[in-house]
Write a structure and sequence with these properties.
The chain is an all-alpha fold. The chain is built from 21 helices and no strands. The protein has 2 domains: 171 residues, no CATH class; 238 residues, no CATH class. It is globular, with a radius of gyration of 23 Å.
């Protein structure tokens, strides 16, 4: 089920919201959230509910065993239970997401029955953070299986993040307060995320898809750069829009998730870009892979290896395809170059040059990320740097729909900058009324776009 579907907007969410606030206490409210989260997850493939619950059970039992060993002072047994639990969780992710890819590269036939469970990468990383943090004594064990299940399966962040660590919501599972301000702020955040998705992401994404799926003879260098820009806008407004909706929905039920994006397209370096993009994933790999490997507190060659391992894993986290590994290594190389010497040069350059440098490299990265077929990827990159001129009128004549989609490109570029944060409504009753009216209008426009659109994918659902 998609947040931007009519089923969710007019049936699922109103029902869960109404039942939640009818319930008189925390236990009943958590039960409503858990049941509806399982319905949400099983809407398309009910069989995967059992797999997710089995994975949660592994973490639950492993957590109890780790806690028991801690109380009894059995450090070796505690470590063994942690390693065993983590290994089972990683093995489950590998089997369903990477096994067919692995055996396919050895010339063996894939197992058709191994369909990819939706959101498996996100909920697996959440469960891993619970087990590892429990082992490090940074959180307390969750002795209630249903509460742990709610943490993992909570529908706002279940399918496509952000990756919420247990310590972020540990207290709120048991003791949270829902206020009218939480509801209104959460609703406003949800509507903004919905608008990002259906007004900007869908339309610029359709333009990118049209160019990449068309005849390269029709589109010259300019249109292939346009396609790269459109995909960059699509993936940003698609994923940040989903994160906005997830954060807003969580807020309406009393949960406060951490931010996942911080205007990444205003970055002045690749290092800065990865401090702003998909923050929950970047910090997860930093805290659970990079730092345990030694981070940058080791010899230079070991540090380089650590960075390559982290970014290789980051690439493969996104999918079982060689282009994702190439994308991860691409960023590992760029970050190494910056950290070794380039950052000293960048610091002395004008901001517009630093921004242009960053955006060109990011656009190239998105081409690698987007096009899983290496031949198509190679052709696209060659076209971008071949300086092949094709009159715009020829491309538009071949596909008039380009003109419609082009309207949304400047809108996307405008909205990728933080100018909207500077718009402040007066802190008065009239100001609140204007804010609510603006959100209602934006919601109505978004619903109109949903009704009239046939192109409505969520990019990060496949991860």
């Amino acid at each position: 089920m998609l947040f931007c579907s009519l089923t969710f907007l007019f049936f699922f969410f109103p029902l869960v919201f109404l039942l939640y606030y009818i319930c008189p206490n925390r236990t009943y409210r958590n039960t409503v959230l858990l049941l509806f989260s399982l319905i949400f997850y099983g809407w398309g493939e009910p069989k995967f509910i059992l797999l997710m619950l089995a994975v949660i059970l592994i973490a639950y039992l492993g957590g109890l065993a780790i806690e028991r060993c801690e109380k009894e002072g059995r450090k070796t047994a505690k470590k063994v239970y942690m390693i065993a639990t983590v290994s089972l969780l990683v093995a489950n992710l590998f089997i369903f997401k990477y096994f067919n890819f692995a055996i396919g590269n050895f010339g063996l036939s894939p197992i058709a029955a191994l369909a990819l469970p939706i959101g498996i990468s996100f909920y697996t990383f959440q469960i891993l953070s619970y087990v590892i943090d429990l082992y490090k004594k940074e959180i307390r064990v969750q002795k209630n299986f249903f509460n742990l299940s709610l943490y993992v399966s909570f529908f706002p962040q279940l399918i496509a993040g952000p990756i919420v660590r247990y310590q972020t919501v540990e207290q709120e599972i048991h003791d949270r307060r829902e206020t009218l301000k939480d509801i209104t702020v959460g609703m406003q955040r949800f509507i903004i995320g919905l608008a990002k998705k259906v007004i900007i992401a869908n339309n610029v994404g359709a333009l990118a898809a049209t160019i990449y799926s068309g005849d390269s003879e029709i589109y010259g260098t300019a249109f292939y750069w346009l396609a790269a820009v459109c995909y960059a806008l699509q993936i940003y407004f698609d994923f940040s829009g989903y994160s906005d909706m997830a954060i807003g929905l969580g807020r309406m039920f009393g949960f406060h998730f951490l931010e996942n994006f911080n205007y990444p397209y205003i970055s002045l370096s690749i290092t800065d870009f990865w401090r702003r993009w998909h923050i929950s994933l970047s910090t997860w790999f930093r805290d659970y892979v990079y730092i345990p490997l030694g981070g940058n507190r080791v010899k230079k060659m070991r540090w380089i290896l650590n960075l390559c391992v982290v970014w290789g894993l980051t690439g493969f986290w996104h999918g079982a395809s060689w282009n994702f590994l190439l994308w991860g290594i691409y960023y590992a190389v760029l970050l190494l170059i910056e950290k070794l010497f380039l950052h000293k040069i960048l610091e002395h350059l004008p901001q517009w040059i630093r921004w242009l440098y960053t955006m060109v490299l990011v656009l190239i990265g998105w081409v690698i990320f987007n096009l899983t077929d290496f031949a198509q990827m190679s052709d696209a990159l060659k076209m971008m740097f071949s300086f092949r001129f094709v009159p715009i009128i020829d491309a538009v004549t071949a596909d008039p729909s380009l003109l419609y989609a082009l309207v949304y490109v400047p809108l996307g570029i405008l909205c990728m900058f933080p100018w909207a944060k500077k718009i402040q409504f007066p802190d008065t009753a009239l100001g609140e009324l204007l804010k609510c009216f603006s959100c209602i209008v934006l919601l109505a426009i978004s619903i109109c776009f949903i009704l009239g659109s046939t192109y409505n994918p969520f990019i990060y659902f496949r991860f």
